[in-house]
Design brief:
4 helices; 97 residues; two-stranded parallel sheet; mainly alpha
Length: 97
C-alpha cells in the first residue's frame, strides 16, 4: 500500500493522486484500492458502491483493519524501488560522512 501524500510526491503522478478516491480508470493499471490515507484508513466511503469496497478489497488481500477501520500502515507500506535505493544511499551518506 501507499499513502495519498506519497503518491503525490511521485514524479508525474500528481493528476493520478487527485483521482484516487473515485477509483480512477487509466492506462497505468494502478490498483487504486491500495492507496489509503496516512492514518491507515480508507477514504472512499460514499464514493464507491458498496461504501466499504476499498476496505473489503484490502481485507481480501490479507490487510487487517481494527474496529475503527484502520490498519497498521507501517506493516503494509510500499516504497518504489528507485525511492528505496535513494533513501538507502542518503542513509549511508549520513552514516559515513
Amino acid at each position: 500500500m501507499i499513502t495519498v501524500s506519497d503518491v503525490q510526491l511521485l514524479e508525474g503522478m500528481a493528476d493520478f493522486a487527485k483521482k484516487i478516491p473515485s477509483g480512477p480508470k487509466d492506462d497505468r493499471n494502478i490498483p487504486w484500492h491500495r492507496v489509503i490515507n496516512s492514518q491507515g484508513a480508507c477514504s472512499t466511503a460514499g464514493l464507491t458502491t458498496p461504501p466499504d469496497l476499498q476496505q473489503r478489497l484490502l481485507e481480501a488481500e490479507g490487510i487487517a483493519f481494527n474496529d475503527k477501520g484502520r490498519c497498521k500502515i507501517e506493516n503494509y507500506l510500499w516504497t518504489p524501488p528507485e525511492y528505496d535505493a535513494e533513501a538507502n544511499d542518503k542513509q549511508q551518506g549520513n552514516l559515513f560522512s
